[in-house]
User: Fold these one by one.
Assistant:
Number 1:
Amino acid sequence: MNFMASKQPENSLLGPEADSQRTLYPYVTGTSVVALKYKDGILMAADMGGSYGSTLRYKSVERMKSIGKHSLLGASGEISDFQEILRYLDELILYDNMWDDGNSLGPKEVHNYLTRVMYNRRNKFNPLWNSLVLGGVKNGQKYLGTVSMIGVNFEDNHVATGFGNHLARPILRQEWHENLSYEDGVRLLEKCMRVLLYRDRSAINKLQIAKITEEGTTISRPYSLKTYWEFSAFANPAQGAVGTW
Amino acid sequence: MPKQQANWSPYDNNGGSCVAIAGADYCVIAADTRMSTGYNILTRDYSKICKLADKCVMASSGFQADVKALQKHLAARHLIYQHQHNKQMSCPAMAQLLSNTLYYKRFFPYYSFNVLGGLDNEGKGCVFTYDAVGSYEKVGYSSQGSGSTLIMPFLDNQLKSPSPLLLPVQDAVTPLAEAEAVDLVKTVFASASERDIYTGDKLEIVVINADGIRREYMDLRKD
């Protein structure tokens, strides 16, 4: 017997039983993904952390996967939803291959498919809690796009998810240009990832950089960035402003 | 345990402004190309304008995913219409379809604020303006989106449309020439970009007249 009757409005059109089936909040999450177009294709970077709230529970999560022959998918957000998306894409690519007609789904098509999936889940109030980055090259055309958990999507020369939008995009807007060389592209991505490492508490110093070109995809072995913690601003942050934190 | 409320919203406002002006034999539709979320800019080069039929163009601002879904839906319906009637949909016909499509989702709306522009069957310019649930009206000019509160009063000042309630019925087209209307649109967006944080980057202008469809771009403030 509930003496304190709940005053919450019944705003769901489905019954209360259906609610237990819907995503309310994410559990194991990945942080930012950053990607840019360069001379030969797309470069994408993501660290390998899977956080369980404030605990860094998993440190070898591969958040970038190759899709079909022409695409590369990076995801931030709920890891289990990312794995579900990989299963959907597996089936999509399988059926595409089974036509055996010489055609294959390019990054634009995969991005469109993902956008529809994310939007339709949002319509049912049961979103896949991810921000996805989809990059690839097909017939010499480079493509880089992103889609959020509510279906907002666009393509651009450089994209980032989560904290990357706040910390990496400004760097990319300043320093990205057409026809970056591979080395310059990697250097630029590492610069972004280093800033994220310093300032995003869910970032870890173990990352992978993936490259996709007309020839195919390569995902690097996990490695770590050199960091420098002796900057005077880090060592003595209150120097210029006593009482700050 | 009391029922959990959702801590995510199915909607987002991706900002931007749209304008359309109808002339005697042309129609100008324009929108900026900035896509934002909160205080961030997602991209500076996203088109809010969609060609629905040969002489019918829609500009929409609001929640981008809903706008995209709406554009796809209307494009699909137009294709079916063409198969069944062996002709393009006229602008007034598309206007009604858009209204019905929006009202269909009256209880989970498309968060999309639209202006539809084009030429009617006689070649005269027409502009239709909508709210998110399909309420619409044929007007001589309109603006929607984040900058509309800044833009609309200025358009009223320059172009004041006759009220649809007046008798005898007056033509809802502007006396301006095409070049003057395009110029007015550029002025209006330049001003809106100054004060509306969600409007800026680049302006995309589409002009429909008897010769076809023409596209033009103009840079706007990037801040």
Number 2:
Amino acid sequence: MFYLRGCGRWVAASFTKQQFPLVRLSSDSAAPRTPHFDVIVIGGGHAGTEAATAAARCGSRTLLLTHRVDTIGQMSCNPSFGGIGKGHLMREVDALDGLCSRICDQSGVHYKVLNRRKGPAVWGLRAQIDRKLYKQNMQKEILNTPLLTVQEGAVEDLILTEPEPEHTGKCRVSGVVLVDGSTVYAESVILTTGTFLRGMIVIGLEMHPAGRLGDQPSIGLAQTLEKLGFVVGRLKTGTPPRIAKDSINFSILNKQTPDNPSVPFSFTNETVWIKPEDQLPCYLTYTNPRVDEIVLNNLHLNSHVKETTRGPRYCPSIESKVLRFPNRLHQVWLEPEGMDSDLIYPQGLSMTLPTELQEKMITCIRGLEKAKVIQPGYGVQYDYLDPRQITPSLETHLVQRLFFAGQINGTTGYEEAAAQGVIAGINASLRVSRKPPFVVSRTEGYIGVLIDDLTTLGTSEPYRMFTSRVEFRLSLRPDNADIRLTLRGYKDAGCVSQQRYEGACWMKSSLEEGISVLKSIEFSSSKWKNLIPEVSISTSRSLPVRALDVLKYEEVDMDSLAKAVPEPLKKYTKCRELAERLKIEATYESVLFHQLQEIKGVQQDEALQLPKDIDYLTIRDVSLSHEVREKLHFSRPQTIGAASRIPGVTPAAIINLLRFVKTTQQRQAAMNESPKTDQCLRNADRLQERQL
Amino acid sequence: MWRGLWTLAAQAARGPRRLCTRRSSGAAAPGSGATIFALSSGQGRCGIAVIRTSGPSSGHALRILTAARDLPPARHASLRLLSDPRSGEPLDRALVLWFPGPRSFTGEDCVEFHVHGGPAVVSGVLQALGSVPGLRPAEAGEFTRRAFANGKLNLTEVEGLADLIHAETEAQRRQALRQLDGELGHLCRGWAETLTKALAHVEAYIDFGEDDNLEEGVLEQGGSTWWGRKTPISPQRLPSLSLFACLLSPTADIEVRALEVALGAHLRDARRGQRLRSGAHVVVTGPPNAGKSSLVNLLSRKPVSIVSPEPGTTRDVLETPVDLAGFPVLLSDTAGLREGVGPVEQEGVRRARERLEQADLILAMLDASDLASPSSCNFLATVVASVGAQSPSDSSQRLLLVLNKSDLLSPEGPGPRPDLPPHLLLSCLTGEGLDGLLEALRKELAAVCGDPSTGSPLLTRARHQHHLQGCLDALSHYKPSKDLALAAEALRVARGHLTRLTGGGGTEEILDIIFRDFCVGK
């Protein structure tokens, strides 16, 4: 295997307006100066690419370090993006001007919105993606991002220096050491190493170290992190074998066609790159008792299944499906890997049997009787770091300016990784410019729920986004991600382009205007019945009915409403997206009012910041039980709201914390009035700490 | 910014597994100031009981209960006839005081109702308040918390707030346990279980129905009988999804509708429902043959329990209402705690332990002449030590250690073991030490009953009704044929109300059911 590790080749960098610190390459400098960046991102997967581009969008000179440039944007597992909950995440990544949604709109081969009939709050945008196209488009995007430099190299160690006194943490990261011994300095470092930390690939009884099939794991880095005191856990995941397309008999299988018209992932696209009729179908087949038999007879040859390492309860391998739900037929979706790909991805057949048995099992499935396995399925076991060791801005508690994003935090899925990547990239950049962190609350987005769950509760299985995890599901919808995040992303993070910002502003004001107009139009129910005969409105109601309430009926949309009341509603039907979004707002209007009240309550709790440097184990001003102290010490919640979500933290403890916060705030207010005493007090505090 | 803090503790009080606030969104508008009410005088015998409200709807509630257009003059006592807004039935002629915010105890609009102290009147007014939209029963310590939030208490005054909240939470928890210990509890848990399962199935259908090849088992799990076949037909991802939606809804629908009927029937029945066992719960416990039944008979001045020299005479929990030093008390005699006896007595011991959990005050009884026996030592080490080990702020459960049969101790002999915690000597036979015990009981009961709102059964019942009604209201919004996300939201709110009564209710619970029942996976 050809491996370019650590060769230090500067692959590509695009320079636009600004001059880059590539001076170290220029020959006229007397001594070879060490390169210096604002942000270094280690890893070029779904978290890494989003992190690097987000940091660059925020104005940081960014270096993306990856094992191999040609694997940037690689989809290592399933050839699809999105789904229920995951599609929500992609919309939010896009609202922050992230990449994956736009790239998917350019690379898909089969677009389909799931949950179409279950309500727009839970629609799941999903697409089969052409792996090759995705990678190409992603690499093009990455290599053309201003301020972003890409270098091949494996990171062996972190450069650590004295901590900044005004922040917590025992040291500060200031760069990385590559395998070849060279160093690169940076103000912030983001680790997105995926399954590469002490990764092990398992097929049958064979195990060998690798981050992904064909790629070396990162061992030095794993040791460094462990030495620093990070709590490390182990997780496992798996991927199915790949089958030769021409060896499958599709004619006898159920065919699924894509949506017509296709719904794009990105707010900036009105349509996708490919027409529905040119898209590829998926096929459905089923396992049978013969498959169960092969699994059960060969458990002794399957060390991945026997291991105790935690795998997910969902998305299990075919082995665990057979073991947990015996005597059932399980679905197998045959998904295309790309337009001109010869491979088919059998979704549902993730397995770690020895290679020869994999083919044996596959060929007893209907339609796959003559199937050829091109690449065997395999399992991966890897280290993850307990995510309670990071803050909601994804910076670690232990090491200042070190950020983690993606599978390293115990998540699974491209979308979960991308979501964390954007947040880590933004915050690494904000940290350099000494601006306050950009935190998405769980009242604002799925990204917030994801990160809050991870940082306050941790995880013991690969964490995946579900809509059922989201309390305010009806408010946090795929359709309104731009209103929720684009404006904040522009103002607070600076990661959103002017054009996108203006688009979102226009949409927001149009929606608000539209809703208030719809509220202002009131007729009796019998008049509505006359105007729109198909509406199932009860005419016995005596009170006038608002147009917004009429729009709630399933059989009514903006078009029919505008036909009935052309003035002033006609103008809201000109933009299709606006008309559709008004309909959605109407559908949920009554519930949203209640949710908004609840959201305010949660946000008030989250506005109550806990001091970052508080030492829960020793602090005397707060009366807390030992158990509560340990829990707070480990998770280090940043707000009272987060603290109250930690299991085992009692209401009485919350009140005590509140009292402490209030005292601290009073003290700070007093300090601000007299800055000099402030300094003295601080010094005195510090002295006391030392004495202790 | 401090307005939100009550929501927090309220939310934390609901249990650690809650991932986020799922408050009773169906009823009040929380977070931004729901209006709360509570009985704020103690449980002791009294002529007048004080019921307080705090929050923006206080004035509204006052007008509704007094059927008046205008509010009475601020901060003046006025005599008004209170009547139930639903039935118009008069409740009591009471003094009402109107305190517009911010010049009030909590800083919000407050009303005080000074009503005649009988349980029927108090219960009637509490229920009438509960029926006013926007009002709900207060959480533990919520009045004080609001006062704190609005800057009405300074930091030293609030020093004891955490202790108070803890004590009130504990007292309310015990009170809730008592209510849930019985038919109502059984019903509530059953309903919560049904609802949780229905919600888990709907959530599974939303999250995994189309994305993750939720296998056909979902239908059988749902209990649909006519879709029992195992043919590999999968409507998921196929265009004819309407088919599947129709298939899922009948089962969830039937269960939810059945639940609605049951809740409705229960609520209509609630007024002549269970007898309220008012008063402090005092439980007599100890090893067998310590003289527990003798003490119960002595305190109640009537032969409640059979007394015999044979250990294990009392096998069930016997309760009797008594008046101790002016406080209403429910006195429970329990089986002697010991291991390894017959099944009937074992059940008695189990019930005794359960009752112990619910006690406000424990009378721990030992045989003074038999302190060295294994059963005595064991009792000291487990029951007495575990309650005694907690500081008063950690537990509002109180314990009095009584050494009976002092007449058997020789007057000159060495006293009881020196390592014993503080205790009282008593002889049920001679009555010696009874005065001392009564005095100690009076002090303890004053502390238990004097604390307003600690687990008042009237308030607990108002809470029950409030949440059951909230659950019922939410269920009426469950319409699975339309937007399934909206239907699930209705179930979420309904379940939120029920789990406020029974505990639990986190997202993980739902996910556990999903992954247990369905093979979800790609």
Number 3:
Amino acid sequence: MNYFPDEVLEHVFDSIASHKDRNSVSLVCKSWYRIERYSRRRVFIGNCYSISPERLIARFPGLKSLTLKGKPHFADFNLVPYDWGGFVYPWIKALAESGIGLEELRLKRMVVSDESLELLSKSFANFKSLVLVSCEGFSADGLAAVAANCRFLRELDLQENEVDDHRGHWLSCFPESCTSLVSLNFACLKGEVNLGALERLVSRSPNLKSLRLNRLVPLDTLQKLLMRAPQLVDLGIGSYVHDPSSEASNKLKHAIQRCKSIVSLSGFLEVAPRCMSAIYPICGNLTTLNLSYAPGLHGNKLTKLIQHCRKLQRLWILDRIGDKGLGVVASTCKELQELRVFPSDPFGAGNDAVTEEGLVLVSAGCPKLNSLLYFCQQMTNAALITVARNCPNFIRFRLCILDPVKPDPVTNQPLDEGFGAIVQSCKRLKRLSLSGLLTDQVFLYIGMYAEQLEMLSIAFAADSDKGMLYVLNGCKKLRKLEIRDCPFGNSALLEDVGKYETMRSLWMSSCEVTLGGCKTVAEKMPSLNVEIINESDQTEFNLDEGQKVDKMYLYRTLVGHRKDAPESVWIL
Amino acid sequence: MEVNYENGLNLKATELRLGLPGTDEPERQTTLRPNKRTLSEISCSGVTDDGNDDHQESAPPAKAQVVGWPPIRSYRKNCLQAKKNEVEGTAGRYVKVSVDGAAYLRKIDLKAYRSYPELLEALEKMFKLTIGAYSETEGYCGSEYAPTYEDKDGDWMLVGDVLWEMFISSCKRLRIMKGSETRGMGCL
């Protein structure tokens, strides 16, 4: 059904960036499928075990950019064994052998060995961009290989990875000829870097826009780097401790003021609050501010800083800001879209925490708020209802009450009505995390109103299987469901097993599902991998069908059982 | 521990039985809602915290550490923990405080204060004296006392000149000087 030559269609498809749209395009007809697959440059794979590298390469020979995600989300919270899987090596090996001109690799929650980094660095002549988020398994040696061999490297972005970086010479491995860097983020490295090499690297990188340093970069180096890179747009300060009256501080102030393009600021891994005034000159331009690793910043010094940030769109902060501090955010940051409040003392007495009051203030003052992650001491239904009314635009709403089964402290009721108000009001809600005391009722509301919901995280909630059923039946667009410590059993799990094929994955831990129930799912749905994770020291899995399963992770896949599961994982 | 509020006696608490105080008794397994796990069944440390309680606890229950809760990335948790340890390592520091003319010395924990004003207020209360206001150029004005400290090099420095963080890491002992010795250091 082609009225246009292929090249014209290709050109049209080029302007379609979204993965979902391109997937839809490929389904129109055989001809479009063919043209689309040859012109596809970027592929996103949300679960690395849903497809194999071979099939990816076969379908998209023109691939330039690959995004892969490995471990399930709850791996972030130590609920998944360290050796569960998510190895990137087979992907890199297959891509290297295929002759694909890979230029960009973005990985999340994957195991990345030095060997894979080395292979990556040597296999793709045009490799430009490496982004690793919450990965592990590599050391500074792997980074050295990337630095040394990727001649046109533009981006090396390491976010919150566990890196073994005992040897800090990787930075010196960037050759003198490397002048293409646009983004360098090594904030998560704990070891020292060669400061001279860093200065020289920044000096010869005129396109450098994003630079995030680790804690061990001292102040005078920071000042020199800023002097050499006044064009920076995104800066991550490592250590920020200085005497405001000193010469070093004055030089720093001068250097910061020259950086008129900085719109994103983060880090402050070490900070002396009195020094924040040096930052004020650039605060007026900031759209992104991440102070969530700076517990030393609180009280007046913090609020004074925020009062300078009138253009802020994204703010990540610790709960030491307090409700009052959030009030300052509410009155200052009228453009705020995303707020994340992390706990500074997760197991402590909660003196410095925020409550429902802070959230209500922000919702009233920041009408553009659409994304929230909020760790708090307590929440009330009344507050949630007010927030829902003030901010109907939420796309992401993640609330974490530190005591997981805490009711509304004023009425002693569960928080069903509050969350119900959120899902009813926020018609565009895609992601929701619940906490506090919750009954089946909240799930009735979610099933009824959360029509756009794609990801739901539930913990310590519900009274019966009905809760899970409301969600599975109601949320048509659900892609990821993760549940822990809820009384959901086999009858909920087995009600509609076909549903799981429409989703990316389902996680259930410490629930009531049994081995028998999981086996039934596996039998009925060969297109799913049903994994049972058992971390106790049993050499053999207990074959009793009535046995409750500690952790179950199931996901749709086109390539059957994976071959790299450790002993603690049993694929049914 | 089940508390019988009707007759005001906490009989269970005084009951003699074999087993550690605070451990679950067998009949608690069959609760009103058998499917719902209470926090105590989940937590590793076994501290009893009955999520099924109807009455409101005025004091927060002991924080039982549940695996993977609160849901914070390990990376972030480790960073904050490392910072806590570091801060608690450098100070958490008791230093001797002497006041000219006082019969005996006292000891204070510098880590208990977050700033100079807090520290000075505590010293004023402890020794029943007034220290006055700090000025960069004039030292302490308004009283006959001046707070000084011995730093790592053995020099006696005026309290307040350097950043608080630098001060608590370098202060070895405090001495509140009085009278004639302080006159040379500042205003009348």
Number 4:
Amino acid sequence: MTINTLTKGGAQREQMYCLRKMERVIVAMQDPDMGMKMRNQRLLITVIPHAMTGNDVIEWLIQKYNITEEEARHLGGLLVQYGYIYPLREPRSLLLRSDDSPYRFQTPYFWTSSRWPATELDYAIYLAKKNIRKQGELVDYEKENYSILHKRINHTWDFVVMQAREQLRASKQRRKADRIVLECQEQAYWLINKPCPGAFDVLDLGPERCNVLSSRVALNADHYRREIEHSRRALGRNRVKSSICLESFMKYSEQYLHHDPIMSGCLPSNPWISDDTSHWTINTDMVGIPTRLRVERWSFSFMELLNDSMGRREFMIYLEKEFSAENLCFWVACEDLRHGESSKIILKVEEVYKNFLAPGAARWVNIDSKTMERTLEGIKRPHRFIMDDAQMHIYFLMKKDSYPRYLKSELYKNMLAKAIVPQETKKSVFPFMRRQRHSSPSPAMVTQATEDDGKAKGAGPTGTSSTTNSQI
Amino acid sequence: VSIYTPDLQNILSLLFFLLPASALTTGIYMIFSTKPEMATQEIQPNETLTNLKAESDTLKTKLEDERAKLHDVELHQVAEKVDGLGQFIMKTRRTLKGHGNKVLCMDWCKDKRRIVSSSQDGKVIVWDAFTTNKEHAVTMPCTWVMACAYAPSGCAVACGGLDNKCSVYPLSLDKNENLAAKKKSVAMHTNYLSACSFTNSDMQILTSSGDGTCALWDVESGQLLQSFHGHAADVLCLDLAPSETGNTFVSGGCDKKANVWDMRSGQCIQSFETHESDINSVRYYPSGDAFASGSDDATCRLYDLRADREVAIYSKESIIFGASSVDFSLSGRLLFGGYNDYTINVWDVLKGTRVSILFGHENRVSTLRLSPDGTAFCSGSWDHTLRVRDRGVITWATFPKGPHSQGER
């Protein structure tokens, strides 16, 4: 075999981190003490040494990694797919059978990681050998590849044929068992490196990625200076003790446990399971009475309240009672500025100034003089983030002051009392009859309707209340 | 004999003011050395770069030492008082077939039932996953559409891949209208687009690219608002922080680093480099105080932003292949990981144990997201399908007792 130069495949090899791990598993499997017990396996009339059954592989994996049979079959199957173990019976089918089918370990010479990518020359020699050995032994796609190679590397064809003959001659000198084994090893290698078109290709990696060794990023002085600057800043950073940070994860998961449908289910039922969309309809923005879980969630954090449009609406009503609604209005206007179109920035900044910051403004917001001064100065050259300081000031004002009082208010308490707790849907009497799954109006529909002014083509997915037939 | 003659002192002060620091040190060496060569002010470009890299590496080591100082307890130790979860059984509720090639990316619509998915052959499909109907389909002019995202309003989708661009398609309900006609090119990178996400509105898009940068774009004008430099290789993923001030995001790349960025200034605020291979996916913990990452090194890790360090590793010896995408359940208790060995592993975030392994896909899982209300999760695979799954049997043994007890089968 010719020697493979792997410089081109360097970056790809880096990607195949998993190959090294698989090899570690393979090595462990062959450990004299803890590895698998191998024995001679019979293949037709020949006895092949150092072989194992598919079942042996699965059993060993179950023992070693403490996993279920299903997982062991899956993992073993991958080892075969990647060519580290090959079948002796039905060698073209790279599957792990959980019975007494015989398998062998691939020789490290042919490991996917050591001889990749496969060279054209090696492939040509392999096909030539097959061709010489028995006429018509080449399968269709192999015949095609053979003729393509013949054209492409015609100049070395003499060498190819000579090598093929030489290797065949050498193999004839070996014992039959060894010869069969070598042929199987080689075949397995090529099944993986040159799979039948349309068949599963395990070496398909997708678009090439570049890592640090072959990067497209200019790792120049600027890059390192940036890194140094970043590290210096990071060194001076305030950090919180792990014990405090990690406690917060406990608290968070506990607080949200009943809100997490995968952990606790949801009421009246999970639409994906029951095909009943009630859970979604009772939680829409426009619903008359919200669910209890939803209202409870507003009390978890100020952000939860603001993120829910109904919560935001309720909070606004409360602030109006307190004559501090301008704060929320200001915050909303700032959000709109921050996330809106670039072209509207100047206009929006003017609006915000006029409504909230100008002396005598209709909804003047009370921010501290320093922030006000800085903001007014910045307005002269308006940009997207110009209101950030003022917005943050008002946000924290609401969070520290109005929000806690809202949670204690009658308004909130009534909301909580009124809120509904849906009844759990009883499992239907005939579980095999699935409900019909109804379509819903596309979000794109809503805006289009307002745009088109009720165009005739409104018979979209909603026009026909399409009760689509359930699909498996 | 002192070499500090008055003459030398004068020369030194002159040098100090006239030359940059690096030249000065070399200059001083030249003056005090016994070698007879002439002092040269020229610095080889190579030397400066090597010195800078060495300095950077030294500082990084120092930073790791600092970070280790406040690490007084492990997550699973703190989690000892929490009940274990037992084994979860997840069931496939919908299988979406229609892509003729590898599914590379997917995203949920805010309406909790629609999704957009993209594939290797350039197809981008919008589905109502609940009914499994396809609602829109567009064919991109490039292959390997590795990124797609649903706009917050539900009225548009963004996608891109080997075309190095991110384009926005407004979703038209007119069946006769060709979606491609209204296509808007927003982002332009110098290499493949690996991920994209709308920010809080339809007006801005955040992108990451194989050219090693991330960028923030104004959709309307296509203008570049901010670019983020700092990764030393391809950037593969990003996620926006759900924080109160909403100004940061995290990215992961082939340089094994996860960087947290300030969207406003373009600066990298925090950086973590503990993975041993490419980081394929990053996702914030629901509270915004931490994020998880999935990597080719077959592990998922949790990084706490306040503690400024890695706080958990989710791995198993029997898991050999890389994690391609990760996401949290709504409460952050579960971490879902889609892997390149065709499986999905579900982890107990607090205890570090695996609560479920899901089979079913016949090729690698390339993308995985929880629905916006956490009722289900969708995985896309190179086997051309997408599967929507959720909790199957909830046995009384594993179900936490609460006011909303549900005996669902």
